[in-house]
Amino acid sequence: MFKHLFTIAQKGNLMAESPGPDTVQELETKAVKGLESAGTEEELEEWRISYLGRRGELTRLLRGLGSLEVEERRVVGAAANRLKSTLEERLSEREQALKQSKVAGSGAEAIDVTLPGRPIPQGGLHPTTRVIREICDVFTSMGFDIVEGPEVEWDHYNFEMANIPKDHPARDMWNTLWVDYTDENGEQPMLLRTHTTPMQARIMESRKPPIRVVVPGKCYRYEATDATHEWHFYQIEGLAVDRGITFANLKGTLYELARAIFGQDRKVRFRCDYFPFVEPGVDMSIDCFNCEGKGCRICSETGWIEIMGAGMVHPKMLERVGYDPHIYTGFAFGMGPERIAMLKYGIEDIRLFYSNDIRFLKQF
Ligand code: DAH
Question: Distance between CA atoms of 310 and 269, rounded to whole angstroms?
């Protein structure tokens, strides 16, 4: 019985109006207005149901066409069908626009996707990083490995194994920052490594010859700073150990480096120098790339620029790690990449490197 009632009620409702051309017009005006004021997905859906849904106003109108005269039905029917496709189109446009505005945000957060993009500022490599990479590339191309080691080091590796015993005056060459810590027996003091040389013993202990390594890394010294001294800086250590390595190999290798970094025409000069871990020890200079050896401000009027210390690995160093110095020989070198960067880029104060002044860093 209820079912029956329902059918009648529904039918009555559906047949309520006999549509005419005006009805279509009125419906269009109303629907378009309604659509414009629908601002959310839910409101759009409500609108769709009330006009285009199964019991929506337009659907009812279309169903009501049956009650019209043939001629009228043709006219009103065509108008109603046109209206249907217009409303469907408008609805999908509104849905599209709503989706778009959701992506772009609204109000203050709105993104105007038509604006040209802003370039993303790109960072540059720090001059020290540049020089370290450049130098390491030269050595890897000659068959060297790149190895890194601890910045906090035992006295044992920083000094003892590098042939610098306790109370030896050579320790004065490295003003040390000590760490308030010792090993469990209280015998082994800890420090911030004063150079990358401790890696020589560490590498020889953990590898067997042939050894060809380069060790870039940070070092620390208890220094008052000035234009050429920093209390922290980088070094690049090099070590080659094998049967039959001679001073000629050292010269040839470092000559290649000098030419790769400072230009193919560079001349090099070796002079005697003292470092406890090499014998003989040398310092290496290049002829001034600025004045071609004539003398200028960069080379302090000497025509030569000192760029690193080097030498043949001291036999005691080899003995300490259990290598027989009668069988194996080696060469070693150590250089400061900041100093090389200062020469290459004409930087006058080493303190600029780590003061984080963006105006300085931006130039690289
Ligand atoms: N470790 C030295 C320094 O800090 C630099 C150096 C000189 C390293 C000669 C070497 C070398 O390996 O053979 O001044």
Answer: 12
Distance 315 CA to ligand 1 centre (A): 16
For position 105, what pLDDT does the model report? Answer: 65
How do residues 111-161 score in pLDDT, each as one tens digit? Answer: 778 888 889 888 899 999 999 999 999 999 999 999 999 999 999 999 999
Three-state secondary structure call for residue 246: coil
Q: Atom 12 in ligand 1: which residue has the minimum CA distance?
A: 333
Note the pLDDT tens digit of each residue in 83-92.
999 999 999 9
Q: What are phi and psi of 29, to 5 degrees?
A: -55, -45
Residue 247: pLDDT band (50, 70, 90) is very high
311 lines ligand 1 (CB under 6 A): yes
Q: Can you say how many angstroms the Cα of residue 166 is from the centroid of all Cα atoms in its chain? A: 43
DSSP label at residue 162? G
Among 24, 38, 48, 174, the active-site one is 174
The structure's pTM equals 0.69
Residue 310 near ligand 1, beta carbon < 6 Å: yes
Assess whether the previous peptide bond of 276 is cis (omega < 30° from 0).
Answer: no
Q: Distance between CA 1 and CA 24 in Å, rounded? A: 36
Judge if the beta carbon of residue 275 lies within 6 A of ligand 1.
yes
Question: Looking at the domain covering 127-361, what would its CATH class be?
Answer: alpha beta
Domain ranges in the chain?
Answer: 2-112, 127-361
CA triplet 229, 304, 361: central angle to 5 degrees?
Answer: 45
Which residues lie across from 145 on neighbouring strands? 213
The helix (H) or strand (E) run that includes residue 188 is none
